[in-house]
C-alpha cells in the first residue's frame, strides 16, 4: 500500500522534510503535483510568469524522478476532489505534504484532511519552508512578536545546528515507486501561454553575499541574491540558505528572518489579508484616483525612479527591493491610494509573489502594519535617487526617454504638496491613536 507525497511549495527532491518522512515509511512513494484550479482560475493573465516558472520546475522535478526510475503524477483540478481519487487509484495508505501558512491554504488542507479521513487515510504535514514556524518563536509572555528586532534576536538565540541539518532524502530514494514515465500536461491545455523568461540561478555566490550589505540598495548593480522566487516555490532549501548566510552575511540573514517574521504574522493575524494590522489605519480616507493609479501602474508618474521600477516590474516580473519600497510609498503617500490596490497589482505581476511578504511590505510602506515605518516618514523620490542611483544608470535602463526633451511626462504631483496632503489625511484618521 503506497504513500502519496504531494509536492506544493517544495519543488525539489533534496532536503525536503515531508518527502523525507514519506520515504522513511518504507512503503513505495508516488510523487504528485496538482495544478490547483481554485488558484489558477482566479488569474486573469493567462501569460502569468509564475505559472511558467512552476511548470519549468515541475519538468525538472519530473526529470529528476525519472532518472531514479520513478515519475511525477501531474494533475489539473481541485486538490480536495483529486486527492481522494488518487488515493483510490493508488490504494494509498497516507498522503504526506509540507505545511503552508496562508489562510486559504490552511482551509484547503483542512478540507483535504476531512476528505481523506472518510477513506481512513492519514494526511500528514511537516515544517519545511521556514526554520521557525507558527508559535516556535514567542515573547516571554508566550505571545507572538509584533516588532521585528526582538523577534530576530529571539530567532537567532533559538537557532542551533539541529534546525539547519538537512533531511537526507537521498538515502531513501530506493523507496520511490518504480514506474514508467507519466504524461505531462502542456500549459496550453490549462489555457496558459508559456512565458519562459530568463530566470536567476537557484544559487548565490559567496562574493555577492560578502558585498551584500554594502551594495544591496543600489538597483543598478546586480547585488541581490535574486533567490526570492526559488524560496517562494521551494526549489532551494531554506536550511541551506540560512547556513550560507551565517557564514557570509548577517544582513542577508536578517532578510531571510524578515520572511519568516511576516509568515508568523500572517499565521497569527490572518486579518491582515484585506485589513490593516493596526485597525485605526482602516479609517484613512483614500483618494483612490483611477487615472492616477493607471499612470503609476504604467510607469508614467513623472518621477523617474518610480517609473523605472514599475516598468521593470511590468517587463520582467521583478523589481529591486529598494525600488519596491519607493514605488509603494509613492502610491500610498504621494497619491493617497489604498495600499491594497498596490498590493494586488504586485501580487499579479511579481514572479516571486508571496502573500506574507507582499502584504507585510505594503503595510510597512503604508505604516499600517506591524513594526512599520512611521506614517510621517515619506520617501522623497528625488533624494532616494540621489542616494541610490546618483548617476541615473538604473533609471536610464528602464526610462529610455528621460533625456529627450518633451517626451517624458512632468511630475503628476509636487512632493511637498503631496506630503502635506497625506499627513493631514493620516492625522485625521489616527486622531487619538498616535
Automatic annotation (TrEMBL):
Gene3D superfamilies: 1.25.40.80, DNA Cyclobutane Dipyrimidine Photolyase, subunit A, domain 3, HUPs
Positions contributing to FAD binding: 212, 224-228, 252, 255-262
Biological process annotations from GO: nucleobase-containing compound metabolic process; response to light stimulus; response to stress
Cofactor list: FAD; (6R)-5,10-methylene-5,6,7,8-tetrahydrofolate
PROSITE patterns: DNA_PHOTOLYASES_1_1, DNA_PHOTOLYASES_1_2, PHR_CRY_ALPHA_BETA
Domain Photolyase/cryptochrome alpha/beta: from-to ranges: 1-131
Site feature location: Electron transfer via tryptophanyl radical: 286, 339, 362
Cofactor annotation comment: Binds 1 FAD per subunit.
Family label: Belongs to the DNA photolyase family.
Name by which UniProt lists this protein: Deoxyribodipyrimidine photo-lyase
Organism of provenance: Flexibacter flexilis DSM 6793
High-level lineage: Bacteria, Pseudomonadati, Bacteroidota, Cytophagia, Cytophagales
Amino acid at each position: 500500500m503506497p504513500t502519496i507525497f504531494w509536492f506544493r511549495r517544495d519543488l525539489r527532491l533534496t532536503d525536503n522534510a515531508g518527502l523525507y518522512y514519506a520515504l522513511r515509511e518504507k512503503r513505495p512513494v508516488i510523487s504528485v503535483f496538482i495544478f490547483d484550479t481554485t488558484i489558477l482560475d482566479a488569474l486573469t493573465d493567462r501569460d502569468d510568469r509564475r505559472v511558467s516558472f512552476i511548470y519549468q520546475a515541475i519538468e525538472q522535478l519530473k526529470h529528476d524522478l525519472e532518472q531514479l526510475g520513478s515519475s511525477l503524477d501531474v494533475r489539473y483540478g481541485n486538490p480536495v476532489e483529486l486527492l481522494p481519487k488518487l488515493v483510490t487509484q493508488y490504494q494509498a495508505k497516507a498522503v504526506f505534504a509540507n505545511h503552508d501558512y496562508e489562510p486559504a491554504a490552511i482551509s484547503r488542507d483542512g478540507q483535504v484532511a476531512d476528505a481523506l479521513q472518510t477513506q481512513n487515510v492519514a494526511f500528514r504535514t511537516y515544517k519545511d519552508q521556514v526554520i521557525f514556524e507558527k508559535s516556535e518563536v514567542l515573547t516571554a509572555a508566550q505571545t507572538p512578536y509584533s516588532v521585528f528586532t526582538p523577534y530576530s534576536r529571539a530567532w537567532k538565540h533559538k537557532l542551533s545546528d539541529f534546525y539547519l541539518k538537512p533531511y537526507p532524502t537521498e538515502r531513501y530514494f530506493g523507496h520511490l515507486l518504480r514506474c514508467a514515465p507519466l504524461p505531462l500536461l502542456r500549459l496550453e491545455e490549462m489555457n496558459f501561454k508559456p512565458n519562459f523568461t530568463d530566470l536567476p540561478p537557484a544559487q548565490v555566490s559567496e562574493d555577492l553575499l560578502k558585498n551584500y550589505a554594502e551594495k544591496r540598495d543600489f538597483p543598478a548593480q546586480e547585488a541581490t541574491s535574486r533567490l526570492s522566487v526559488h524560496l517562494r516555490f521551494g526549489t532551494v532549501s531554506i536550511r541551506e540558505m540560512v547556513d550560507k548566510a551565517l557564514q557570509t552575511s548577517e544582513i542577508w540573514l536578517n532578510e531571510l528572518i524578515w520572511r519568516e517574521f511576516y509568515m508568523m504574522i500572517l499565521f497569527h493575524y490572518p486579518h491582515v489579508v484585506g485589513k490593516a494590522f493596526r485597525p485605526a489605519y482602516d479609517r484613512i480616507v483614500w483618494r483612490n484616483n483611477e487615472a492616477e493609479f493607471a499612470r503609476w501602474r504604467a510607469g508614467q508618474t513623472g518621477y523617474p525612479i518610480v517609473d523605472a521600477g514599475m516598468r521593470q516590474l511590468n517587463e520582467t516580473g521583478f523589481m529591486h527591493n529598494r525600488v519596491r519600497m519607493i514605488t509603494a510609498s509613492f502610491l500610498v503617500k504621494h497619491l493617497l491610494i489604498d495600499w491594497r490596490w498596490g498590493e494586488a497589482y504586485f501580487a499579479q505581476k511579481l514572479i516571486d509573489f508571496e502573500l506574507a511578504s507582499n502584504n507585510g511590505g505594503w503595510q510597512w510602506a503604508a505604516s499600517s502594519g506591524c513594526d512599520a515605518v512611521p506614517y510621517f516618514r515619506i520617501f522623497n523620490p528625488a533624494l532616494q535617487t540621489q542616494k541610490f542611483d546618483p548617476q541615473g544608470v538604473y533609471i536610464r535602463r528602464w526610462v529610455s526617454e528621460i533625456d529627450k526633451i518633451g517626451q517624458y511626462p512632468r511630475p503628476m504631483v509636487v512632493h511637498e504638496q503631496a506630503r502635506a496632503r497625506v499627513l493631514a489625511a493620516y492625522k485625521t484618521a489616527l486622531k487619538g491613536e498616535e
